[in-house]
Design goal:
The protein has ten helices and 21 strands. It is α/β, with parallel strands linked by helices. The longest helix has 19 residues. It starts with a strand and ends in a 5-residue tail after the last helix.
């Protein structure tokens, strides 16, 4: 009897786990004792961390996009459709076009999604860079910006949590290189006591911002944007005026999670911190941004999780135990300008400690970005 492994999501997490499983279960797939299916609502795979570079003309859209059939192993069955409901009792995934997929093992790689509508006025009065369309729109706005007040305002939670810091430091360097840094006032508005949620990174970022004359507005919880007055307003009534507004809206989990009543109020999935199982389910696993784990929603998180989960699932399909633990490992490069970067590495037990920025780390990040297309195939 064929064992069906169904993966919902065609992003970094979904593609990587599918490719690792396909390589590890090639014999079983050829013998038709195992079938791996990926459900994706897009025909393309997008390298989302590249959105950061679009506003600065450092990346073009075509560099960040590949057709799904160039990214997914040929031994993986791909269904281009949207998952709408998960029935954990019947072990079925219902699709928008009417198909119902049975599963023996289900992997939820459903990602995180910006909720622009959570901030009234943002669509009309501000910008972001967490989608291709919004990154291109921001690029156009920056092409016409020649100095003035810039506000970068952050909502929580959001994926790629280090990206707002990166964008702010890259923008400061960009304004300097464009020749209008002295005419540019930059404010970074964050809803916590410092510019980042982890103390060690917040302390480092605060020093960097102070050295670059970037103002930090703390405890700024976004309420709405007033595009007529060019101000962004906090829940306590504070107003920040702007000529260019960049907002990182809060993110939530996928609609299929909400419709299936599997997650919390923001549709994050309760996930075992070591074995990546969905709480209360023995044969459903969660990977990437979709989890509620206390770690970054970042590409490297998906990478390290995929290595562990693929190992465990292959063992389970071979009739063995799948109990290798994930330790919360994350590695993040951090651009500190247009030609320098640092990095942080951490896990559940060890907090991040940024190293001094350098051109060499920037080159390493540039190389890592290019390696994504090999990385996502599970080869490295």
């Amino acid at each position: 009897m064929t064992k069906n492994v169904v993966i919902i999501g065609g992003g970094t997490a979904g593609c990587m786990i599918a490719n690792l499983l396909a390589r590890g279960l090639k014999t079983e797939i050829n013998q038709r004792t195992v079938q791996i299916t990926v459900v994706s609502d897009q025909e393309i795979h997008i390298y989302q961390p590249g959105f950061l570079y679009i506003p600065f003309h450092l990346k073009q859209p075509e560099e960040l996009i590949r057709p799904m059939d160039q990214v997914i192993n040929t031994h993986v069955h791909v269904i281009l459709d949207r998952a709408t409901q998960i029935d954990t009792h019947k072990q079925n995934v219902h699709l928008e076009k009417g198909e119902s997929l049975p599963y023996d093992y289900l992997i939820l790689a459903t990602g995180s999604h910006p909720k622009v509508e959570e901030i009234p006025g943002l669509q009309e009065g501000g910008h972001m860079f967490y989608t291709m369309e919004s990154a291109l729109r921001l690029r156009d706005a920056m092409d016409h910006f020649h100095g003035g007040k810039v506000v970068v305002a952050v909502g929580l939670p959001h994926k790629c949590p280090i990206a707002p810091l990166e964008f702010t430091m890259m923008l400061e360097d960009w304004a300097r290189q464009q020749g209008f840094r002295k005419q540019t006032e930059i404010t970074y508005a964050y809803p916590l006591a410092g510019p980042y949620g982890t103390a060690s990174v917040a302390e480092w970022a605060e020093k960097e911002f102070n050295n670059r004359n970037i103002h930090i507005e703390t405890f700024f919880m976004i309420d709405h944007v007033n595009p007529e007055e060019n101000v962004i307003v906090s829940v306590d009534g504070r107003k920040l005026s702007y000529d260019l507004l960049v907002v990182i809206p809060p993110h939530q989990g996928a609609n299929v999670v909400r419709e299936s009543k599997l997650g919390d109020k923001e549709a994050w999935l309760p996930t075992h911190r070591h074995h990546l199982r969905l709480d209360g389910q023995e044969n459903i696993f969660v990977i990437g941004d979709a989890t509620n784990l206390p770690i970054s929603k970042a590409g490297s998180t998906a990478h390290f999780e995929a290595e562990i989960l693929s190992h465990n699932l292959i063992n389970l399909l071979h009739g063995k135990k799948g109990e290798k633990p994930y330790n919360g490992k994350v590695f993040c490069f951090i651009e500190t300008g247009l030609n320098q970067a640092t990095y942080i590495s951490f896990d559940y037990e060890n907090p991040p400690k940024p190293v001094p920025p350098s051109k060499w780390v920037h080159f390493a990040k540039s190389g890592y970005n290019e390696m994504h297309w090999v990385n996502v195939k599970g080869i490295l």
